[in-house]
UniProtKB/TrEMBL annotation:
The lineage of its organism: Bacteria, Pseudomonadati, Bacteroidota, Flavobacteriia, Flavobacteriales. The keyword Transmembrane applies. It comes from the Bacteria. This is DUF4870 domain-containing protein. It is a multi-pass membrane protein. Signal peptide: none annotated. Its main location: membrane. It is found in: Membrane. It holds the Pfam family MamF_MmsF.
Amino acid sequence: MEFQSSKSKVMTANERNIGTILHLSALGQYLFPFGNFILPAFIWSAKKETSPMLEAQGRSVLNFQLSVFVYTIVLVGLGLLLTLSAFTKGMIAFQWDDQSFAIRNLENISFSTGLVVGITAFVLFALLKITEFVLIVYGALEATRGKVYHYPLSIPFLRKRVNNNNAQTMDSTSEPKVFTSE
């Protein structure tokens, strides 16, 4: 979907650059914790009122990052749950007191099942992060071209705001009325 600037018919280079930076700011997760949320949210909140394109870009980036976070929590949770259930199937006994800690009955554990589940969860997590990186870069390239990239499998947590300045009301007997300020 291509956007045109709200002030002119052609999108400015500045809008394209900020849109690109918005997408790439999600890579801030590799600089500091939650950088993939903080940096895009900061840029989006500063620029969303200036351009509909930047508003849509920021919403798209944040929705994708929130979606990846949810998918990561679910994947890690299921991976841990399945791995722990595979390892505790043999009724592992945990024993501790003030000076020692011991795990008993380890001979009954099916390590192959736990190992397969653990490796599968790790591989899926790695694929998720690689896909996230590739899609962020692709979204930045689309923003450079003046397009809003809608990430696949993105949950729409943040939705477009309804503009009440051009609100329309309908009577059952009349045509739509547009209210404007005079």
